[in-house]
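TL;DR need structure tokens for one chain.
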Amino acid sequence: MKIVAVTSCPTGIAHTYMAAESLEQSARAAGHEIQVETQGSAGSDPLDPAVIAEADAVIFAADVEVRDRDRFAGKPLVQTGVKAAINDGPGLISQAEAAVAAGPPAGSVSPSAAAAGAGGGMGTKVTSDAGFGTRLRQWLMTGVSYIIPFVAAGGLLIALAFALGGYEVTDYVPEGQTIIDVFEWNSIDSWAALMLAIGGTAFGFLVPVLAGFIAYAMADRPALVPGFVGGAIAVEVGAGFLGGLAAGLLAGAVVMLIKRWNVPKALRGVMPVVVIPLISTLVVGVIMFVVLGAPIAALTDGLTEWLNGLSGANAVLLGVLLGLMMAFDMGGPVNKVAYAFAVAGLSTGTEASLEIMAAVMAAGMVPPLALALASTVRKRLFTEPEQESGRAAWLLGASFITEGAIPFAAGDPLRVIPSIMTGSAVAGGLSMLFGCTLRAPHGGIFVVPLIGNPFLYLLAILAGTVVACAMVIALKSTKRALKEEEVLQAQVGAPV
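>> reply
TL;DR here they are.
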């Protein structure tokens, strides 16, 4: 068969490309031809229309709406999420074979669905018939996915500013002046201060973007304006990240409510562009300024003081907890909660928040590194595809892409997940114990020069990697020994 596929995840980074690779390997193993369009964060290279026309089946492995899906209208379709493609590529290829055997219209891309998804707009994936808890998680994760590029750009620029100009770079611009007033082309300190200003500006968008896209996930484009405005108000009143979450949910709820109004036909055309943004922005603004802003700001201040007061065993315990969360689902919702918690603190610039960011990144690097090491030193415990994934996992782990561990966890979750959770907990706890700090929100091994106590930080990552590697090897060796014993007993006729 000839198959075409589209993969896309909310962040458009690791899962998008891992799903594509899994589908390519599975299709080749089954003797089929496949071409995959990855609709990632950097855009996509659309499939040739001639290739689509010749295709026997289409696979959509996407957690956001597939852009321009009308191109595939009439083709037998298999539609699922990216994790299904990563975990069970052969199963999806089998489903594609079944869809072709059934033929349209048993499972195909319909013109109506194509029209709904056309246009290549902003993507979100919220299951309308899911429970409230599931939809709430999807709303929040949509907001988090859109702030990640701002986090990466702003955080790395701020980190570079401190690396070039030292901590005194914050005092480079005198009070009452701007960087334009004091900038000198031949001064390293000036360039450091400029990077700090640009990075700080990028960071200033975090809360409004978070709130705006939470609202967007809930109520589509009309909710963007009240969401962004509510997020900006959260920053102005000092409510921070928590205020952004509240503003986004509030804006989405208000717009959803207004959409239910039964308005005269003459007003329906102006509702999305005038009436809904106007009324919802007014309502959200009043509530954020008058009702919610002050309490959430007080809660944020209390949380900041508590984090700053952490020391000794309490700090280590927090590092252990964050490490467990980072490894539990390897890039999933629990992982993103821990990461978002760390990123939210970066805007405060306190010592405790920088230690938390360091612990989270150390813990996130351990799973792929540990499994890369294990699949290298004990190859016979891993399948050929896992060994191939292990070679790629070295770079993924070094780059702080925890998703590199997913192919291993998918094949043996009961042994892999507890092992990497243990290793990540060790790394996170040690990082907090050593007092390592990190101003960059991403970068892995490549931002180690920007880390406080870098040698101890690498030691924490190494310790976590070794612990996780040893544990997964021990558990897999036990499994292999039991299988060999069962085979031997079967051969001699003993009961198994």
